[in-house]
Design a protein that fits this description.
Blueprint (H helix, E strand, L loop, with lengths): L7 E2 L11 H17 L8 H8 L3 H29 L1 H20 L4 H29 L3 H32 L4 H20 L13 H24 L4 H21 L9 H5 L1 H31 L4 H7 L1 H18 L5 H19 L8 H26 L9 H37 L6 H31 L11 E2 L4
Antiparallel strand pairs: 1-2
Length: about 500
């Protein structure tokens, strides 16, 4: 089967949900927002949950890591399950399971119950995210409408992390840490009802078979990779378990790639990733997510620990970036994408984000938000809006009907793995920079604050480098020219 859209004319027998496609987009956007913000909404609530459930500082990371491990390691199989069983069914099951797990987490009576609920959230998120994106890719296929839809979706996906910080701060300060879990019920139920009523299931003409050996290899490899970087963040890069996990991840993922080139029904057909535009989109998503942690993680620390912002005020401080990202993503997809090649949009977005990080290196212990932080996050928001909107669309463009789910899963997988690597790498670099600063300077009343700011600016320089490298690599990998979409056809198998 050729690597093109499996399609037929839209002028005869349009899909039943074609007329309500914009309502379908609203449902998918709500679900995507829930999944993305859940990676950060719990962060601010962690100290309160720790005090309530009486778990240790060493255990605290598992509330975050359990979600990341399950989500990151199961995304590819989640995407293929959507291809096998039908995207509407898998989308609805993912929503329902996510809602139940969130309710259990909010009602947790001990640490184990909370961590288990977070892991189950991640597992159902791994079903939900690729099913939702593949539904979007198969619902909007004409160039103009696809651009608008992916602009909205990409903007929400990129802004979800900052929205999660604000929402987490508001819920924790004015309600309870438990509401950072319960709030998912509102998102999930709304999307569940909307998805059931609005999305029409149509069976695919082909049903790909499940590649069980490939599933086991890639799930184990991604688990080892995400866990390895999580261990590096907490226990250091020289820790024996960390090294063992990363070596195992390299071996398992290499074996997976070799296997996929030889089996008849691969979990991840190499044609999906070897296309230059799709491969470039996956690479851009990974590096953008890695660099983005330089904004959310360390800027959150700076605003609260150094400038004394409350959790809510820190969340509000990110709103200009969120707005810039959403507006830019929409403009990139509707105005720029039909005229400007991705080879310009994605590297341009990366370089703007790098410039934002460079501006952030000017902070000190008495900086003003309006003169240092605000210009930086506006630049970064514009840059990430260009990257996310373009990459979400490119990552699913031109795949066959049978591969829509797994191509969508690759977009989410690279974003998740890139974020895990970025968090571990930048945290380690920042911790080393702070220790070196303290060791090289005489004690004083502001020594610790100065060391912290130095660690943040060091991380921002490294984040700028990650974005810059992403800009160069995406310029090399992405094809010149604007990708063509056949506007006389529409995918019909969901």
């Amino acid at each position: 089967m050729s690597d093109t859209l499996v399609s037929r004319s839209t002028t005869v027998d349009d899909p039943p949900d074609h007329a309500r496609r914009w309502w379908v987009l609203a449902v998918l956007a709500v679900a995507q927002l829930m999944v993305v913000l859940d990676a950060t909404v719990v962060n601010i609530a962690l100290p309160y949950a720790q005090a309530d459930l009486a778990f240790s500082d060493a255990d605290r990371q598992w509330v975050i890591t359990a979600y990341a491990l399950a989500f990151g390691s199961l995304l590819l199989i989640g995407g293929r399950i959507a291809d096998l069983l039908g995207r509407k069914a898998v989308f609805l099951v993912g929503l329902g399971g996510f809602a139940v797990a969130s309710a259990v987490g909010g009602a947790a009576t001990d640490f184990g119950m909370l961590v288990a609920a977070r892991a189950v959230q991640g597992a159902f998120g791994a079903l939900l995210a690729p099913a939702g994106l593949s539904l979007l890719a198969t619902t909007f296929v004409t160039a103009r409408e696809r651009g608008r839809a992916f602009g909205i979706y990409g903007g929400i996906a990129g802004a979800g992390a900052s929205i999660g910080l604000l929402l987490g701060g508001v819920l924790t300060e004015y309600a309870s840490w438990r509401w950072t879990m319960y709030v998912n019920l509102f998102f999930a139920i709304a999307a569940l009802v909307g998805g059931f009523l609005l999305i029409t299931h149509r069976a695919s003409a082909h049903r790909p078979r499940l590649d069980l050996p490939g599933t086991l290899l890639v799930s184990a490899g991604l688990f080892a990779l995400v866990y390895g970087f999580s261990r590096a963040e907490s226990d250091g890069w020289s820790d024996g378990v960390t090294v063992g996990l990363l070596v195992a991840a390299a071996l398992l993922l290499t074996a997976f790639v070799v296997l996929e080139t030889r089996v008849r029904h691969p979990l991840l057909p190499m044609r999906v990733v070897l296309d230059r535009n799709r491969g470039g989109a996956y690479l851009a998503m990974a590096l953008a997510a890695a660099g983005m942690f330089g904004v959310f993680l360390f800027l959150t620390y700076y605003l609260q620990a150094t400038l004394g912002y409350s959790a809510v005020r820190a969340g509000i401080a990110f709103l200009p970036m969120t707005g810039a990202l959403i507006v830019t993503a929409g403009a990139a997809s509707t105005v720029l994408a039909p005229r400007v090649p991705p080879r310009i949009l994605v590297p341009g977005g990366m370089l703007l984000s790098a410039a934002g990080m460079v501006v952030l290196t000017r902070i000190d212990i008495q900086s003003h938000y309006s003169t240092t932080v605000l210009p930086a996050i506006l630049l970064t928001g514009v840059g990430l809006g260009l990257v996310f909107a373009t990459s979400f669309s490119l990552g699913t463009l031109g795949v066959t009907e049978d591969d829509a789910g797994v191509a969508s899963a690759m977009v989410n997988t690279t974003q998740q793995v890139g974020g895990s690597i970025g968090a571990a790498l930048l945290n380690t670099i920042a911790a080393t920079a702070a220790a070196d600063w303290i060791g090289g300077h005489a004690g004083g009343p502001t020594l610790l604050a100065e060391a912290a700011v130095h660690s943040y600016t060091t991380a921002f320089w490294w984040a700028a480098a990650i974005f810059a490298v992403g800009g160069v690599l995406s310029a090399v990998v992405l094809r010149p020219g604007v990708p063509e979409i056949d506007e006389s056809t529409a995918v019909v198998a969901l």
